[in-house]
Design a protein that fits this description.
Layout: H1 10-27, H2 34-41, H3 47-51, H4 55-72
Length: 79
């Protein structure tokens, strides 16, 4: 069995998504900025935008795990 290759910089991307979750949890979606994510992650300004160029891309990264879980879990209440 082969495993899928790990995307480049997966660890840093995960670190940024976790920081973005903390930013949103503390201040809501209005608080979500690249600068706020960089500060929360303890990274230099501009780091987040190197991986997620736009706020839409950052939001997509935040919602991807939820979308994946929603699409792959079996429906509990099947009709």
């Amino acid at each position: 069995m082969t495993t899928a290759p790990t995307p480049p910089h997966a660890g840093r991307r995960l670190e940024l998504v976790i920081a973005a979750q903390r930013v949103v949890g503390a201040g809501g979606l209005r608080a979500l900025t690249h600068r706020a994510v960089d500060a929360d992650a303890g990274l230099p300004e501009g780091s987040c935008s190197s991986y997620y160029r736009t706020k839409v891309a950052l939001l997509g990264a935040l919602t991807e795990p939820v979308s994946y879980t929603h699409l792959t879990l079996p429906t509990i209440y099947s009709v």
